[in-house]
Amino acid sequence: MAAIDDLIVQIEDQALRERLAVELRRLTKEKKFGLVFEDHLPELTPIYGAKIRRHSKVALRDGPLLDLWRVLSMRDGEAHCRNIGSGETRRIPVGDLVVVRRFGEPIFPALTPVDKVQNGPEDAPWHTLIEADNYHALQLLEYLYAGQVDCIYIDPPYNTGARDWKYNNDYVDANDNWRHSKWLAMMRRRLKIAVRLLRKDGILCITIDDFEHHHIRTLISSSLNELSYLGTAVVRTSPSGRPSTRGFRVNHEYALFFGKGESASIGRVPISGGQQVFFCETDDKGPFGWQNLRKRGGANTFRKARPKQYFPLYVTADGFRVPAMDWNKETRQWDVRDTPKKGEVEMFPIGDDGRERIWSLSPAKMMDGSEEFEIRENSDGNFVIWRKLRPNPEGSLPSTWWDSDNYSIVAHGASELEQILGRSDRPFPFPKSPFSVVDALRVSGAAKPDALIIDFFAGSGTTLHAVNLLNELDNGVRRCVLVTNNEVSEEESRTLSEQGLHPGNTAWEQHGICQSVTWPRSKYTILGKRDDGSELDGEYLTGKTIEKEKPRKFQQIGFTSIEDLNTAAKKKQLVALIEGIPQSEVKKDSAFVVSEKHPASILFDESQADAWLEALEDQEHIEDFYMVTAGKATFDGLRARIHDLLGPVIVTEEEKRPMREGFAANLEYFRLDFLDKDHVALGRQFREILPLLWLRAGAIGPRPELPANQPLPAMLIPERNPFAVLVDETRFADFAAELDGRDDLTHVFLVTDSEEAFQEMAGELRVPNLIQLYRDYLENFVINKGGDGT
Questions:
Q1: pTM (two decimals)
Q2: Considering only CA atoms, which of 705, 696, 700 is closest in space to residue 770?
Q3: Distance CA 269, CA 683 (A)
Q4: Residues 6+ away with beta carbon under 8 Å from 38
């Protein structure tokens, strides 16, 4: 129906147009069920850099993209055109036209280098930023990386009706009756290609909010059978909440995870700061923490829930044993065939409240020797069994509720982006926090240190930022490919149009998202500084905890003395001025206060200093010390003795990394262009295709370039890249000899029109990937992958 809507708009006869619109509205009143959305006319995209030729499909630069014309002839700067819909002919200045491509038509893409930044080793993999419509970029990426991508992370338009995305060059708003179907049609076309990029165990992560959450899940389950649903994480991206029209303050978004094959599974995340505090002790096997062997918690920790974990243990100060016993299926309890020996105490997992709990291990697990235990006495003189727990070296399973403050799109998204760019004009709406993206990548297949990650809704470039952070944290060599268009905002578009500018003009394009946000953000964060040389302020959170020494605090109280503090009430009046000591700890005869529960201590009577110091032994939690003494020498002496006794306070805190240090990373920035098929077939555009060959071989080492206006070499064998190209097949013998000893090569491209010649040459080479140019390139895009553009 949406396609019919688009066609009706093109009818010139107003009466007929209105009559058909009425009939269409009547037909669409019929009730529909399930996920029903209309297939719109294939999307169109303007190619501002394409040269206008005879037979080109064009539109007016300032007109609607759906109003298409065909160029019949060209003369004196004018194009004689026929309107494809109405048949009208008109002469139009060439400068007023733009070439238009319909999604699904064969394309022959190339990447034109725009800029690059290098802050890492030359031989390291290079990240890639592609300025393009993401549909055409995905077609190119399929040629480059089909079946090779570990993780695709996308943050598509949320389709809230805020006019923040376009369909066929027109903003989609809340008044558009086809808003949801246009969004679904747009997403389906792209996801159909994207799924072919994933490895057999690759994972797709989509972040979305409530507007399209249910639609995208249903779309994938009904249209993309290759993907299986792995789960959803609810991410608290707005701690304070954003107001909604329905009255709730919205705090969350969703991260949806889909796996391509049966082996795809959600990865683990590093243990949290709280877990690191628990595993704070270390032995020759690594970090560990102590946990009571008796379970505590909810319903599953009671005998009724798990009766096989309720049984006696025979305990001594040196250890315990599990008695001989048999499981009784009828009574659902253990029949014990043993009795305690002399000196042994029978212990059941009875809680402090007297209720029957369970042990955290089964009898067999307790006896297999894999666990470590320790017997302690509590304050009542009763035995308590402690179990030594160790963290999983691979991390912990992620929960479905992600509530870290580090995920805030305000504190770590918008504010951080403004700080990086040195702007305060909200350069991009609602950028993600790189820390939330880091965790999403970790569980989406990017935990692999050499993972390939693609984001084809790159926006402000947060995904590359996150990949660089992840590489820095674990010394990885992950590679990221970003794709984003260069759209300007609706407000900027009006302003630029009023200045007489058009899309494609340099002054217009410099305001686009890629050129003004994505590229500078990526460049500045890699270098740690902006173009003007100013260093980036701020710090990154690494997720790692480190120990730091913190000095203890000492305060001399000289305005009173023990003679004045001769009653409990007076001592309490003094303690009331001190934070960290409750008055309930003070008694009339107290010479000092030392508590295992409180972080401060006070000495009332300096004559009892030795007793005070003895009580302070092992009280490492006390950080603040107050001493009632008139003499400075006495105060200094006691401070020195406490420092020798307890040393500094050891605190754990999250390690931070200054932004100004940048990242050891490299990035190439390209713009997607289109080639002439015939020129490619004749080998006239090898220079334009060369960046694609570099990318297909892994983008390792500096991208090779050929001097302009010079003949093409017979062969290209870059020393610092793992690929080679034979341009002149008559030189194959020389080419093969040059490859001798190049064990680092992963790709060889052979230029020949003959399949037989290709097979013969390929049979003499021992390289993992052998590709026939230009046949491989042309066939890939002519086939058009089954009409995904329709």
A1: 0.77
A2: 696
A3: 49
A4: 1, 2, 3, 178, 181, 185
Contacts of residue 161, defined as CB under 8 A and 6 or more positions apart, other chains included, come to: 172, 173, 174, 175, 176, 179
The two three-digit tokens of residue 421, written as one number: 């760019």
Backbone angles phi, psi at 279, to 5 degrees: -85, 60
Structure tokens at 730: 């008559």
Torsion of CA 575, 577, 580, 582, to 10 degrees: 40
Q: Could you report the per-residue pLDDT of 158-183, keeping only the tens digit for each? A: 766 555 555 555 556 555 666 777 88
Dihedral class, residue 203 (left if φ above 0, else alpha if ψ from -120 to 50, else beta): beta
pLDDT in tens, 507-519: 989 999 999 999 9
Strands (E), 390-470: 401-402, 452-455
Secondary element (H or E) of residue 757: helix 755-762
Amino acid at 783: I
Q: At what angle are helices 609-616 and 632-646 packed, to 10 degrees?
A: 20
CA distances from 54 to 72, 78, 84, 264, 782 (A): 6, 11, 15, 50, 21
Structure tokens at 420: 């990086």
CA distance 709 to 348: 88
Q: Which of 259, 192, 665, 272 is nearest to 443 (CA)?
A: 259
Burial status of residue 80 (CB atoms within 10 A of its CB: 0-12, 13-18, 19 or more):
middle
CA distance 36 to 39: 10
Rounded to whole angstroms, the Cα distance separating 673 from 114 reads 12
Sign of CA dihedral 172, 175, 178, 184: positive
Q: What is the spatial order of strands in the sheet that 44-47 belongs to?
A: 44-47, 97-102, 57-60, 69-75, 78-83, 89-93
Q: Say how far apart CA 406 and CA 418 lie, in whole Å.
A: 17
